[in-house]
């Protein structure tokens, strides 16, 4: 129990200057009315969070991407939506029958049709998405293990030249001709390809017969 005032550290505590009747004791049993103990809690209540937040929390990543911007957090599914949105029974993220009409709590039909480009009962996707490019890792990147701490997110690391730039795939045979994703662009003459390996160290790729060619 306090014997001096907190405000100056020297004045004596009196009944009129300080309210001492607000103590809390675990398993104190029955306490007298008007006594100094006003709260009695059980042992199991010590672990009660009292509604306060604890543990990990999902936060938005609102950084600009600069070298000094914090990378903590995640991006929203759609810019106008709610982060960590708790959907109700009718706010589907994906469901058949073209009823995916909301994402993150806002109207959005980009997922309507279960993968189709068009919203309609009989719309279908004629092909898979073509992949003709990737992102460069860059050249000339360095990592200094003796770099001093700074405001940079990764102070010892220097990003390579061209890192993150789009890079088209090229044909494996010559290493320069732009590659095309034949699997995503079938034609009547080449409706598809099959790559397989039977004992040989290198796989073999054969084209399916043209659609307008009769079976022999």
Textual characterization of the structure:
Helix content is 0%, strand content 14%. It is elongated and about 105 Å long. It starts with 22 loop residues before the first strand and ends in a 9-residue tail after the last strand. The mean pLDDT is 76. The chain has a two-stranded parallel ribbon. A two-stranded antiparallel ribbon has the order 3-4. It has four domains: 1-50, no CATH class; 58-126, no CATH class; 130-180, no CATH class; 186-216, no CATH class. It has no helices and ten strands. By secondary structure, the chain is mainly beta.
The average pLDDT score comes to 76
Number of domains: 4
H-E order: EEEEEEEEEE
Indicate the low-confidence ranges by residue numbers.
none
* Coarse morphology: elongated
Gyration radius, rounded? 33 Å
Say how many strands there are.
10
The proportion of residues in beta strands is: 5-15%
Total number of helices: 0
The main β sheet shows up as: 2 strands, parallel
Question: What would you call the structural class?
Answer: mainly beta
Query: What is the spatial order of strands in the main beta sheet?
Result: 1-2
Amino- and carboxy-terminal Cα gap: 102 Å
What is the share of helical residues?
Answer: under 10%
């Amino acid at each position: 129990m306090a014997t001096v005032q907190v405000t100056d550290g020297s004045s004596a505590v009196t009944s009129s200057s300080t309210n001492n009747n607000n103590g809390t004791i675990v398993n104190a049993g029955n306490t007298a009315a008007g006594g100094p103990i006003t709260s009695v809690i059980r042992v199991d209540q010590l672990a009660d969070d009292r509604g306060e937040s604890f543990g990990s929390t999902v936060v938005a990543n609102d950084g600009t991407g600069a070298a000094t911007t914090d990378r903590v957090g995640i991006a929203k599914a759609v810019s106008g939506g709610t982060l960590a949105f708790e959907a109700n029974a009718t706010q589907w993220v994906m469901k058949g029958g073209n009823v995916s009409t909301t994402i993150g709590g806002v109207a959005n039909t980009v997922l309507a049709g279960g993968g189709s480009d068009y919203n309609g009962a009989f719309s279908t996707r004629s092909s898979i998405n073509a992949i003709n490019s990737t992102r460069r890792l860059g050249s000339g990147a360095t990592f200094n293990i003796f770099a001093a701490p700074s405001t940079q997110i990764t102070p010892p690391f220097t990003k390579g030249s061209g890192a993150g730039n789009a890079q088209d795939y090229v044909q494996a045979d010559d290493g320069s001709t732009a590659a095309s994703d034949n699997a995503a662009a079938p034609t009547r003459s080449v409706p598809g390809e099959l790559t397989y390996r039977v004992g040989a160290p290198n796989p073999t790729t054969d084209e399916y017969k043209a659609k307008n060619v009769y079976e022999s």
